[in-house]
Amino acid sequence: MKKRNFKPKTCERCGDVFKPTGGHAKYCCDCSIEVSREKQLDCVRKHYKKNREKMLEYHRKYKSSKRDSKMFFRTLAMTSTIADSK
Fold first, then answer.
1. Are 18 and 31 in contact (CB under 8 A)?
2. Most buried residue, 9, 23, 66, 70, by CB count within 10 Å?
3. Better-scored residue on pLDDT, 10 or 82
4. What count of other Cβ atoms lies within 10 Å of the Cβ of residue 11?
5. Which pTM value belongs to this model?
6. Which helix (H) or strand (E) holds 5?
7. Which residues neighbour 2 within 8 Å (Cβ) at sequence distance 6 or greater?
8. What's the chain's average pLDDT?
9. Under 8 Å between Cβ of 45 and 75
């Protein structure tokens, strides 16, 4: 397999110069981890915001153990307060 040598790029987040491992790399190694976490969190927040009522209705209909319900409502409360703050 042919080894690819990409030209150094500038990170869009921090501005440091880095050597990309792929052709579409936009962020350095440190920033790419943070950016992927932020994108994942944003996706989860949108999902909870969109489906909150359905999930609450489902949970009320099919109650599980107390431990699961506490964790469920704690997660819902955290995501809704984080989403509301943005």
1. no
2. 9
3. 10
4. 19
5. 0.57
6. none
7. none
8. 81
9. no
Nearest of 28, 35, 30, 31 to residue 8 by alpha carbon:
28
Q: Is residue 15 part of a domain?
A: yes
DSSP 8-state assignment for residue 62 = S
Mean pLDDT of 23-36: 93
The total domain count for the chain is 1
Angle at the Cα of 45 from the Cα atoms of 48 and 52, rounded to 5 degrees: 15
Residue 22 lies in a domain: yes
How far is the C-alpha of 36 from the C-alpha of 58, rounded, in Å? 30
Q: What residue numbers bound the domain in which 56 lies?
A: 9-85
* Any domain includes 1: no
DSSP state of 70: H
